[in-house]
Structure formats: C-alpha cells, structure tokens
Amino acid sequence: MPSPVQWGTAAGNEREPMQHALFYSLVAMCSLFAASTWCLARPHALSSLAAAVAAALWFLMNGMLEGRVLYSVTPDHGLTEADLLSGVALAISAWGFRTTARNRRRHERRPRPAPRSVDVDETRAMPQQILAAQQDVSVPPRGPRNRH
C-alpha cells in the first residue's frame, strides 16, 4: 500500500493513486491529439513544438493506457501500442517544422512588388480623376423620376 504522504491520499484509500494515474494519462492523450490536430491544421513553429512536447509527455505518462507489448526490450520494458502514438505525433511535429521552414524560405525569397505609380518625390502618387471634355458629357435634365 502506498504511503498517504507519497500520494497525497487519505489513509486506507488505495484506489485514489490509480484514479489519478488514469486521469493524467487521459489528459496527456487528449493533449497529444489536440496538439497533433493543431499542427496538421495550421503548421507553424508553435504548433509543431506543442505536438513534440505532447508526444514526450504521452510517452512518459501513458502507463495506464499502454495496451499490448509489441516488442520486448527487457522483461519489464518494451514497445507498446500506446508508444506508437508518440512516434506518429513526432512525425507530425517534424512535418510541421519542415513546412514552417519551407514557407519561411519561400516568403523570404519572394521580392516585394514595385509600387504601382511613383511621383517625382518618390512617394505614392494619388490617383487623378480624368474628366471628359464638357461637350462630350451628356447630362440628363433634372426633374421628376417617374414620367409617364
């Protein structure tokens, strides 16, 4: 039985540490899914970093939700089904970092377009209104709109 001081539980309550571990595992799994989805939807440095951190947290906190052992390293340790989620999240994070770097390089290489019109003093010129000659303009006479 774990000591109450170690787990912060009341004496005699043995189920509470297991419930906390399950809760923390579920929180880590939800953060892994949320960060990976964010990185896939909008890949930038912050979302990629969040996915990488969530993958590391999931790898450390997936004890209650590990699943079957796929490959045994030692009798007590091995690769489990839940560890594969960390690998997928790290791949998503790497893709996000690569996409961010590629977009940044592409944005830096693109030259800025020249201004449309430049005045003599190197400022943007205001558009000038071009009016037709007075004899070319036919203005209808003012009056009531509904003439029947």
What this model shows, in words?
The chain has 148 residues and is mainly alpha-helical. It is 52% helix and 5% strand. Strands 1-2 form a two-stranded antiparallel sheet. β1 (69-72) and β2 form a beta hairpin. α3 (45-61) packs antiparallel against α4. 14% of the residues are buried. The model is unreliable at 1-9 (pLDDT under 50).
Brief write-up:
The protein contains four helices and two strands. It is mainly α and 148 residues long.
Features:
disordered N terminus; 4 helices; 148 residues; 2 strands; mainly alpha; two-stranded antiparallel ribbon; 5% strand; 52% helix
Give the helices and strands, then pairings.
Blueprint lengths: L3 H4 L7 H27 L3 H17 L7 E4 L5 E3 H29 L39
Antiparallel strand pairs: 1-2
Helix pairs in contact: 2-3, 2-4, 3-4
Q: Work out the strand percent.
A: under 5%
Kindly state the number of beta strands: 2
Q: What value does the average pLDDT take? A: 77
Q: Note the main sheet.
A: 2 strands, antiparallel
Unreliable residue runs:
1-9
* Through-space gap between termini: 100 Å
Q: How does the overall form come out from the CA principal axes?
A: elongated
**Structural class of the helices, strands and pairings?**
mainly alpha
Order of helices and strands: HHHEEH
Radius of gyration: 33 Å
Number of helix segments? 4
Across the major sheet, the strand order is: 1-2
Helical amount among residues, as a percent range?
40-55%
